[in-house]
Write a structure and sequence with these properties.
Blueprint: E1 3-9, E2 13-20, E3 23-24, E4 30-33, H1 34-39, H2 44-55, E5 61-66, E6 70-71, E7 74-76, E8 83-84, H3 86-93, E9 97-102, H4 103-110, E10 119-123, E11 133-138, E12 142-147, H5 171-186, H6 196-199, H7 203-214, H8 223-231, H9 235-259, E13 265-268, H10 270-275, H11 284-288, H12 296-299, E14 303-306, H13 311-322
Helix pairs in contact: 2-3, 4-13, 7-8, 7-9, 8-9
Length: 324
């Protein structure tokens, strides 16, 4: 069995591991700070080279999952100044077999290989075996991708749908969108109220600031502080969390109708796990199962949170093992 090198490059850290076929060696997983490497003018090639030097491993294949778009075999990180392609990764690792995936593609490849104890159903519904699925990432950024089975193997198209427009269904949603646009403009950013601005790691902080503004206050907290305030019963944090769940439910409903994932929708990432205890409290299912012209949302689809922090590494191992 060949030994493979895997890397999951997030917005903050890169996880690197070894795999035997489709099986990740959990005791081989190590974390590297992206900021430390970028400060030295280094990138993923140096991370992988350092990992191999530290472990003494010799690998025949390498697969990297990048939090950014992958086009024509080249990955560009969204939150880092890192660009990678097959020649760079091969030179750094001496691996003859190289694959580069978007991080959501890796998560999609992992579905079906995640232990049942790491799956938490938050919206129950029928799950059709062998049907299309969808994976939704809620972490430092936001993204989603369909997962299609096929005769030549599983297909997970790349996507950057974290930058689609935020769902606007109510007067409050409209005020929120305008608030986000003004906030981004004041920070010198592109004033676009995309779903990432409200559902990513920074999203809960934006929602808290909006809730404070609605209450006539000028208060800000980080997302981690909002979560603590939520547990303490703070009204502004409760308002922010309610908005988060409402918007997430609308986004998931739209994705369900676009992709028809009869095999289920799967939420991954730190924010999905952090908000898991609050989905029922703030009505995720009510927001998702909305009556529309077709009744699919009322009776079909399930939503599950993946609590496996290393699913992307598993997806990389599965993909690399399956490609010719």
């Amino acid at each position: 069995m060949t030994l493979a090198l895997l890397a999951d490059i997030g917005g903050t850290n890169t996880r690197v591991a070894l795999a035997d076929g489709t099986k990740v060696r959990l005791d081989s997983i190590r974390r590297f700070s992206n900021a430390e490497y970028q400060a030295r003018g280094q990138d993923i090639a140096h991370v992988l080279s350092d990992y191999l030097a530290q472990t003494g491993a010799s690998v025949s294949g390498v697969c990297v999952a990048a939090a950014g778009p992958v086009q024509d075999g080249v990955a560009t990180m969204t939150n880092l100044e890192w660009v990678m392609d097959a020649p760079k990764l091969s030179a750094a690792t001496s691996a003859g077999k190289v694959a580069i995936l978007n991080d959501l593609q890796a998560q999609g490849q992992a579905l079906g290989h995640i232990p049942a104890e790491n799956l938490r159903t938050v919206i129950a519904g029928p799950v059709k075996s062998g049907a299309s699925m969808a994976v939704v990432g809620l972490g430092t950024g936001v993204n989603a991708a369909p997962v299609h089975p096929g005769p030549q193997g599983r297909v997970v198209p790349p996507s950057e749908c974290g930058h689609v427009n935020m769902p606007v269904r109510t007067e409050e949603d409209f005020r929120l969108a305008r608030f986000i646009e003004a906030r981004l403009s004041s920070e010198g950013e592109v004033p676009h109220a995309g779903v990432e601005e409200v559902l990513a790691g920074r999203g809960l902080a934006n929602l808290y600031a909006f809730a404070a503004s609605e209450a006539g206050q000028n208060a800000t907290l980080s997302s981690a502080e909002v979560l603590k305030a939520l547990d303490a019963g703070d009204p502004l944090a409760i308002h922010a969390a309610r908005l988060y769940v409402h918007i997430l439910g609308q986004m998931l409903a739209d994705l369900a109708l676009i992709h028809l994932p009869y095999g289920g929708l799967y939420l991954i990432g730190g924010m999905s796990r952090a908000m898991l205890p609050h989905f029922g409290r703030f009505g995720l299912e009510t927001s998702f199962r909305e009556a529309r012209r077709v009744d699919l949302l009322l009776k079909d689809f399930s939503v599950t949170v993946v609590e496996d922090d290393y699913a992307a590494l598993t997806g990389c191992a599965v993909y690399l093992n399956n490609v010719a």
